[in-house]
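In the current project phase, we have settled on a layout for protein records. One protein thus recorded is set out beneath this paragraph:
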Amino acid sequence: MKKFSIFFLAILFVVSLTACGNPAEQDASLPDTPSQTASTGDAGSTPDEPLAQAGKTLVVYFSWSSNTEKMAKAIQEQTGGDLLELVPVNAYPSDYTECTEVALKERDDNARPQIKDLPESIAEYDRVLIGYPIWWHTAPMIVGTFLEHYDFTGMDVYPFVQSASMNTEQFETSMEFVRGCANNATVHDGLFASASDTDAITQYLSVNQLAK
């Protein structure tokens, strides 16, 4: 009887050792719990929005019918930039036909109409957004007056343009004019959209990291 008790106790001892084996191997068979699952970020997180470019922005525009002015004010609101309207010394006729005649002569003469109250310098700005309508298949010549008045070395220029016909060939012609007049500037691809197309304006500013 004594031998049997010793034998029985020995078996219990062996079973106890087996039950207390490597805990890591035992846990490996357990299903993952929230505390054991590696974190890869918040499930509801979204990619960060592009940050606005550092530095100061100037929003310049020429507008005859107020359409470009609407674009400029929408852009100014989203960028937080300063606003500058190009006002000719000699006002354009309010009559549409008369205005087109003046504009055509200016284009044919490659004229540079004078502008009222231009800032002495725009060197404090890092980028200039310049808006205009398409006149006679290109930019109004007053845009050339502004661009040729300053040295744009180190500055970025972003044209924004609207027209009644929305002819892309005319838009590209106007872009060539801007590139030729903006001395030493980096002229970026411009925005060509209807003045009422707020989605296009917002998207352009976002893609170019211009929105505040």
